[in-house]
Amino acid sequence: MTADPAVIVPIDVAGQGLLPEEITDHVAGLLADLGATPGAIGRRLAALGITGHRDESDRCPIANYLRRVNPSLHAVNVLDGVIEIRTEAGTELTVPASDEVSEFVSLFDQNYFPRLDASAQPNPAADPGTTARQEARS
Question: Which pTM was predicted?
Answer without folding.
Answer: 0.77
